[in-house]
Amino acid sequence: MRDRPGRDRRVVHHRAPPASGPSRPGNRPRVVVVGAGIAGLTAATGLAERGIAVEIIERRPHLGGRAGGWTDTLPDGTAIAVNRGFHAFFRQYYNLRALLRRTDPELRRLVAIDDYPLIDGHGRRDTFRGLPRTPPWNALAFAARSHTFPLADLRRVDARAAAPLAAVSVPAIYDQLDHLDAETFLQRINFPATARHLAFDVFSRSFFAPPTQLSAAELATMFHIYFLGSSEGLLFDVPTSNYDTALWSPLRDYLASRDVQIRTDITVTAVEPGGDRTFRVYERDGRAIAADAVVIATDVAGLRRIVEHSPQLGDDAWRASVGRLRSAPPFLVYRIWLNTPVAPHRPAFLATGGLSPLDNISVVNHYEQQARTWADRHGGAVLELHAYALPQQLTPAQEHDIRARLLARLNRLYPETADAEILGEHLQWNQDCPLFGAGDHAHRPPVRTPHDQLVLAGDGIRIDLPVALMERAATTGWTAANTLLTRWGLPGHDLHTVPTSGRNALLRRLATRYGSAPARVEDPR
After folding, report:
1. Of 185, 199, 107, which is closest to residue 520 (Cα–Cα)?
2. Closest to 325 (Cα-Cα) out of 299, 344, 287
3. What 8-state DSSP symbol labels residue 22?
4. How many CA atoms lie within 13 A of 261 on its CB side?
5. Other CB atoms within 10 Å distance of the CB of residue 144
C-alpha cells in the first residue's frame, strides 16, 4: 500500500496497532459480518486478509448496500443497469479507495468528473472547475468568482461566531456546535441567504436532511473535509459502469479467493451471546450460526431491530444509544430513459438549490457504460433525478405530483427534454440513511460495544475522525476489523484521513483570536 494515498502532502496516517504474538488465537476465529454494504465489505476484507474465517450475510440480493447495483428490465424487455442513485467518489475518500484498490490498484474503473456545477432558483450558477486545490485559496477563489456571495453581505458575517468553520478540529467541533442545527448556526453567523442554497444547503442535503435537521457540527466537518481541510479538491470520480460490475463483483471474487462465504437474501433477526462459540446469529427462518465474533454493519434501522430482538446484547446505556439512532427523511431516485439526447454540453452531474423538490440531475450516459450503450443504440439519454428530505408519508396523488414537478424542473433546466418521450422509468423511495441531528453525536454508538468481540460499522456509527458518507462507512469497517484483529494479536490496517484540525496557521490564529477554541456557540433561541 502506498504511503500517501492522494496528492495532499498533509494527509494524516493513522497507523494500526502492531501484532502482539502471545495473544494469537489457537484456532482460526470465525466472524459473521451482518450487512454487505461498504462497511461490511470493508470489515470482511480487513479480517479475511489476516486469515480470519468470515461469513457475510446480506438481506438484499446484491452487494454494496446503498451503493449497490443490479439489473432490471424496461417494459420492452430490455435489460437495464440500475442502482440506488448517484454517488460521488471524492479523492479524499482514502479508506474507501483503499478497499477499491484491492481489485483495481490504479482505480481505472473510476473516471473523473470535470465539473460539478450548482444552480439556484434564480438561475445563478457556481462551478468548481478551475479552482485551486490548496486551502484556503480554494474557498477564497470560489467565493470571489461566485454570483451568490455579494461582498457587502460577506462583510456582515459575524467573524467571531463563524470562527469554528475556519479551524475545525475533530472531535472538538462536536463540543462546540453539535447542540445547534445547521440552519440556526448559519443564521447566527449572518451567512448570506443567497449563498446558503449553494454553499451549504447542498452539503446538508448530501446527508439527506434539510439544514433544520442537520447538526451544525456535521456541516462544519464537511466544510473542513471538502474545502479547508484538504487539498484534494471538490471534484470527484464516478464508476465507469454500474456499481455491481465496476466495484462489487470484482470484490466478491477477491473475497471468495480468501474463502469468504457470502449469502444474500437472508435477514438476520438477532445476535445473542452464548452457544458453541461466543455468539449465536439468528436468521429469520430460525437458523442459528455460531460465531467467535460479529460485525453488525447494517443501516441504523436494521441495527435497532437486531438489538431490540436481542435482549441479552449489551448493557442498558449501550442499548439506549442504539435506540436513539434515527433515519433521515425519505428520498426519491427517479431514473428515466428518453428517446432523444440531451445537449452534449450538459454536465454529468448538476446540483440544485432552491428548486424543490429537485436536488440534482445526473446524465448517466455521460459516464456509465451500460447507460451509454443504451443511449447510443436508441439515440436517447439516461437521466437520474433526485429528491431528498421528503415528507414521511405520501399519498399516491402526492407521489404523482412530486414526479411531475421533478420532470417540470428538468424540462425548464434542460429544455431539450420537454418533448422527449419517456421509454422507461425506474422509481425508488428509500428511508435508510442515518440522520445526524443536533445533539446526536454524544449519544451515537461507536465501533466498540460492551462485548469484546462484537463491533459495529456503518455510516451511522460514531468515529472521531474527519470522515463522512461512504468514507465514514469504509473507515468504520476497517476500524471494526482492526478492533477484532488487535484482540487476537494480529496486525491491523492503517487508515488515512484529511488533517484532524484546521491546516492553515493563520486561520487557526484568527479562530483562536475570536475565541472559537474552546468556546461554545450558544443557541440564540
Report:
1. 185
2. 299
3. G
4. 10
5. 11
Closest among 7, 193, 1 to 90, alpha carbons compared:
7
- Of all helices (H) and strands (E), which one includes residue 413? helix 396-413
Share of the chain above pLDDT 90, in %: 70
What is the model's pLDDT at position 514?
Answer: 45
Average pLDDT of span 196-217: 78
Q: Where are the alpha helices (DSSP H) in 101-214?
A: 137-145, 151-155, 159-166, 172-177, 182-188, 193-196, 202-206
Where in the chain are the domains?
17-66+242-326+445-493, 69-113+236-241+328-430, 131-232+502-513
CATH 3.50.50.60 holds for 17-66+242-326+445-493:
yes
How confident is the model over 479-487, as a mean pLDDT? 97
d(Cα 509, Cα 91) in Å, to the nearest integer?
A: 28
How far is 47 from 481, CA to CA, in rounded Å?
6
Distance CA(494)–CA(508), nearest Å, equals 28
Choosing among 3.90.660.10, 3.40.50.1820, 3.30.450.20, 3.40.50.720, the CATH entry for 69-113+236-241+328-430 is: 3.90.660.10
Mean pLDDT, residues 30-57 taken together: 98
3-state DSSP call for residue 488? coil
pLDDT single digits (tens) 80-139: 999 999 899 999 999 999 999 999 999 999 999 988 898 988 888 888 888 888 887 887
CA angle centred on 66, ends 384 and 168, rounded to 5°: 95
**Residue 143: predicted pLDDT:** 77
pLDDT of residue 297 exceeding 70: yes
DSSP state of 269: E
Other Cβ atoms closer than 10 A to 425: 14
Give the residue carrying C-alpha cell 459473521.
32
Residue 171: is the preceding peptide bond cis (ω within 30°)?
Answer: yes
Cβ–Cβ under 8 Å, residues 402 and 332: yes
pLDDT band of 74, cuts 50, 70, 90: confident
Residue 447 CA to residue 17 CA, distance in Å, equals 16
SS3 call for 432? coil
Q: Please determine, for residue 507, whether its predicted confidence score (pLDDT) is greater than 90.
A: no
pLDDT in tens, 428-460: 999 999 999 999 999 999 999 999 999 999 999
Which pTM value belongs to this model? 0.94
Q: In what order do the strands lie in the sheet with 381-387?
A: 125-126, 118-120, 349-353, 360-363, 381-387, 331-338, 422-430
pLDDT of amino acid 193: 77
CA dist., res. 203 & res. 50, Å (int): 37
Grouping H, G, I as helix, E, B as strand and the rest as coil, residue 43 is: helix
Task: Report, in angstroms and rounded to the nearest whole number, the Rg of the chain calculated over CA atoms.
Answer: 23
Place of cell 437472508: 266
